[in-house]
Design goal:
alpha/beta, 7 helices
């Protein structure tokens, strides 16, 4: 069995992904680390292998993430400019915290082949003129440069059934309208389907993804990753 760390388990996708991980027999230990963690009352009964830790992202060393020797690191952490309060704080939380946490969770043991799975956004582009899409694209590259044995990035479509009140839906629509034409088919996805797809990708790895997922190599020199679009997430999550 493998161990799994989830960063950002209190968001729309993260909370369902956490339940998927806890209900699966594949994970010997599940870690939920974040600025806040799931309250006891909201946890499922089958949580015996869960380890929770509140993390100060300004002092990641104290969190001792790498000591967990996590086999798979799932990242569903993110925010919006509105929730962050400013563009500067948005980039700090959405990109700096995410990349730094992934770096902190990477072990120093070259024999330990770790995998990282990052939930990005449809339309993510490091050169985008839109802050949200640019930040997601730069975060993808930042994680890919960390040297994990396997890096998988999900760029889902419009969320259906998301239990959140922020403005990410509008920002995602902007992404589609500014160049992500390939997403105009199968542009919606139910959050539980996405969460299941993310867990399965973490389990299977890039090399084990079924052809129907249509995963592609993306990124740039020294920052390559496996990209799963919305159509692929639907295929993987509904299988």
């Amino acid at each position: 069995m493998s161990t799994a760390l989830i960063l950002g388990a209190t968001g729309a996708t993260g909370r369902i992904l956490l339940r998927e991980l806890l209900s699966s027999n594949e994970w010997s230990k599940v870690g939920e680390y974040g600025r806040r963690v799931t309250p006891e009352a909201d946890l499922p009964p089958n949580r015996g292998n869960l380890e929770q830790k509140t993390v100060n992202f300004e002092n990641l060393e104290a969190a001792e993430l790498k000591e967990g020797r996590w086999d798979v690191v799932f990242v569903t952490l993110g925010t919006t400019r509105g929730n962050a309060g400013s563009a500067e704080m948005f980039e700090k939380i959405d990109r700096e915290y995410v990349v730094n946490a992934c770096k902190a969770a990477k072990t120093d043991d070259p024999e330990h082949k770790q995998r990282v799975v990052y939930l990005s956004s449809g339309g993510a582009n490091p050169s985008s003129s839109f802050l949200y899409m640019r930040s997601k694209g730069l975060t993808e590259l930042g994680i890919a440069r960390l040297g994990y044995a396997d890096t998988i990035v999900f760029r889902p479509g419009l969320f259906k059934g998301a239990q959140r009140a922020d403005k990410r839906l509008g920002e995602t629509i902007i992404g589609y309208l500014t160049g992500a034409a390939s997403y105009f088919t199968n542009i919606e996805i139910h959050v539980p389907v996405l969460a299941k797809a993310i867990m399965k990708a973490g389990s299977l790895g890039s090399s084990g993804l079924p052809p129907a997922v249509g995963a592609t190599k993306a990124g740039q020199e020294d920052a390559w990753f496996t990209l799963v679009g919305n159509k692929g997430a639907l295929a993987l999550g509904q299988d």
